[in-house]
Every structure is written in structure tokens, then in C-alpha cells.
Amino acid sequence: MTILDGKKVSNDIKDEIADHVQAMVAKGEKVPHLAAILVGSDGASMTYVNAKVKACQRIGFNSTLIELPDYTSEEELLEKINELNTSKDIDGFIVQLPLPDQIDEQKVLMAIDPDKDVDGFHPTNVGRMALDLPTFLPATPYGIMELLERYQIETSGKNVVVLGRSHIVGRPMSILMSQKRKAGDATVTVVHSRSKNLEEITKAADIIVAAIGISEFLTGDMVKEDVVIIDVGITRVPDATKKNGYRLAGDVHFESVSQKASYITPVPGGVGPMTIAMLLKNTLLARERHIK
């Protein structure tokens, strides 16, 4: 069993981007500039956004963090988005989700300029992805594809099961893995809360992408020998033995599934670090497009 070390691979990618940025500086070019809008004080969101800012500092990007109070109106947020859309200094930006109840997330995502949508959530970019056209890929699926490629995991003709049908992970993964690409050419099945004979489907899978949002949902008796496991989930599970009172768990029961898996991502340290690395890669792509 091999651990798919997202932390190591993400650091490799950051080093590659940092080298690219140094070459840009040597040519006198403007370095990429990533902005993030954070509305409110959700703990997980703050941690994630701060990690993005630190990653920008490490590789030589410029970064801007815009923090807005949780009572910010939808109109105020849309005005801020418009400022970033029209700013020549900002190459790409994200609006950290989730947003407070008074703000329509879909309206916000639609307001972002597709050419600066480095999260890859705008319908224009999702449509381009579905048509296999050059675009910003959603960061988490992009990171998973990169992990599969860098570990040279064979996907062509393989039976892939995606647990979950979210717009952020499940559906994009099903599209990408069925396309003609390096980590593609697979036969993909998407399962969800209404799927019947779930265990029968997962037991036939060569590769499983677990993004169902239920901690330790996938167990060892639901998979076959030598399966490849990509665990996208991350949940705080109460644990009295831990100093902070909880432990982090994925959508996969690691102890039982790892006994059968040929490759498996850990939680934390698997998919999570890859998401940030691919966000940076999208921002570099945005800067290069703007130069052209």
C-alpha cells in the first residue's frame, strides 16, 4: 500500500511555480496577483484563506486578502467583486465559501469575471471544462488529477466510482476522468444518497473518489483488493483523547480500507494541500493569459 502524499506533491508544484515566478521577475514581468474575499469569521474558512496567503508569499506571488464582516450585504459584496473584475492589478480571485445566509452564492459566483475565476466555478469555465477546452479547472478535481498523474496510476479503461455529485468535486471529477487525457479514459459511475446497491458498485471499482461528505462512510468491506482510494472528505470528529477534543477524519475509514488499497490518500495531507497548489497554478495561468 502506497500513501498518495499530497503534501509532498503540492510542495513540488509550489517549487516549480516559484522557479517560474523567478524567471518572470528576471524578465521584468509583473508577478501573479491573487486576491481572496472572506465574508465573516468562519474558523475553517479563515484557516484555509490564511494558508492560501502563506502559499502566495512562499512562491513569490502578490496576494490581497479582503475581509468583510458577516453582516455584509449581497450588494456590497457584488460591488467588491466588480472592483476586482475591473482591476488591472489582480490576475485572479476567489470568494471563500460558504457565505452568510443573506447572500446568494450562485449570484456571487456568476458575478466573477470568468477570466479571473481561478476557482473554476463560473458556468463559462465549467462549460469549457465539459467541452475539453482550455480553461481553469476546479482546484480540488485538478489536484486529484495531478496526484494520479504524478504517481503514474493507470486510469485508462479502469472502473472509477465517484461518491458524491457536488458541483465542486463529484461532477467535475466524473467529467475529467472520462475525457481523453493522461489521468482519464476511464469508465465512470457517479453514486449518491439515492443510489441503490451501493456496496455492489463500490466493490467493482478500481478507483474510488470519495466526496460524499459523511465521515468514514466508505469501509473496508465495501472495496476490493488493490483499489485506489482518493479521499476528499474532511470532518472534525469528537475525540476525548486529543488535546483539542477532536480528530480529522475523511469520508473513508482509513484503518479498514487501507488494508486492501494499493494507493490511498491520507486525511489530512492528501487532497487538501493539492487544492491550494492548483489554485496557485490557475493564478499563474491567469497571469500568463493576461500577458498575452
Automatic annotation (TrEMBL):
Residues that bind NADP(+): G164, R165, S166, I234
InterPro entries, sorted: Aminoacid_DH-like_N_sf, NAD(P)-bd_dom_sf, THF_DH/CycHdrlase, THF_DH/CycHdrlase_cat_dom, THF_DH/CycHdrlase_CS, THF_DH/CycHdrlase_NAD-bd_dom
CDD domains named in the record: NAD_bind_m-THF_DH_Cyclohyd
One term of GO molecular function: methenyltetrahydrofolate cyclohydrolase activity
Catalytic reactions of this protein: (6R)-5,10-methylene-5,6,7,8-tetrahydrofolate + NADP(+) = (6R)-5,10-methenyltetrahydrofolate + NADPH; (6R)-5,10-methenyltetrahydrofolate + H2O = (6R)-10-formyltetrahydrofolate + H(+)
Pathway of action: One-carbon metabolism; tetrahydrofolate interconversion
Gene Ontology BP terms: L-histidine biosynthetic process; methionine biosynthetic process; purine nucleotide biosynthetic process; tetrahydrofolate interconversion
Transmembrane regions: none
One family name in Pfam for this protein: THF_DHG_CYH
One Gene Ontology CC term in the entry: cytosol
Domain annotation Tetrahydrofolate dehydrogenase/cyclohydrolase catalytic: ranges: 4-119
Highest taxon listed in the record's lineage: Bacteria
Tetrahydrofolate dehydrogenase/cyclohydrolase NAD(P)-binding domain ranges (all copies): 138-289
Enzyme Commission code(s) on record: 1.5.1.5, 3.5.4.9
Keyword terms, alphabetized: Amino-acid biosynthesis, Histidine biosynthesis, Hydrolase, Methionine biosynthesis, Multifunctional enzyme, NADP, One-carbon metabolism, Oxidoreductase, Purine biosynthesis
Record text on subunit structure and interactions: Homodimer.
Biological role stated in the UniProt entry: Catalyzes the oxidation of 5,10-methylenetetrahydrofolate to 5,10-methenyltetrahydrofolate and then the hydrolysis of 5,10-methenyltetrahydrofolate to 10-formyltetrahydrofolate.
UniProt record similarity statement: Belongs to the tetrahydrofolate dehydrogenase/cyclohydrolase family.
Designated name of the protein: Bifunctional protein FolD
